[in-house]
Fold this protein.
Amino acid sequence: MNLFAEIRSAVTDALGRMQAEGALPQGLDLGQVAVEPPRDPAHGDMATNAAMVLAKPAGKPPREIADGLAAKLMEDPRIAGADVAGPGFLNLRLAPALSPGLIATVLAEGAGYGRSQIGQGQKVNVEFVSANPTGPMHVGHVRGAVVGDALSNLLAFAGWNVTREYYINDGGAQVDVLARSAYERYREAHGLEPEIREGLYPGDYLIPVGEALKAKYSDKLLDQPESVWLADVRDFATEIMMEMIRQDLAALGVRMDLYSSEKALYGTGKIEGAIETLRAKGLIYEGVLEPPKGKTPDDWEPREQTLFRSTAHGDD
């Protein structure tokens, strides 16, 4: 147990005593009671919102609850001060004797300090990065990689059984565009002028892909219709892009447990089955989105499409 959890237990115990004495009604939900660092360190070592979150269900002014809670907490030798601030926040100062004991615990537990089994081994899947395999990672992808990896590490440290997943969007139109762009670099590798028309990926990172295609296929794909080479070039270029992304992730120290292919789901019936399950639960429906807020684009038109009922999960 860490110090914040200990003091939160002290707060909930004090609230329990207030309920037993009739100062607070029975049956209050204490789940939203938190103990956190105050915004201003000058206000104390910890702060609790207990009076604020319990005022309405208890039918009492928050300052009245905070005053009673402060008196109870001052009976705890670990609490050196309990001051009510603003509308009812309670700032706490800890007894100086707590610090040496905490330091000894940190030193004794070393890298394991703070580890817990809150997750109780429950499985959790964290899907992050999942950049389209059409080019190198950029700083936005890196940000997602760092945040996702940190979240995964925290969950694992707190006792969850974590799977880190990268979902490869290799089944949509963007990978066909990648294939067409790589084919032009393949032509360039043979000394021909590449036709990087509008809508293709113009980046120089595809030049080595064109060279690799030449090494694999020689001139067999030249002057062939798209129907002959598209699928092979798409798979070839996608794999090279994914290898580049894997190397970038490795340089960041980020490892994935699972790389899932969107294309691998095609023809299995799983996508259709999932859609029917979501529809049966009322989570998706056919509807029309509102136009974008602000200036409406000239090409916007209302059209019916399948929508996810995200408001059922707290999305405002």
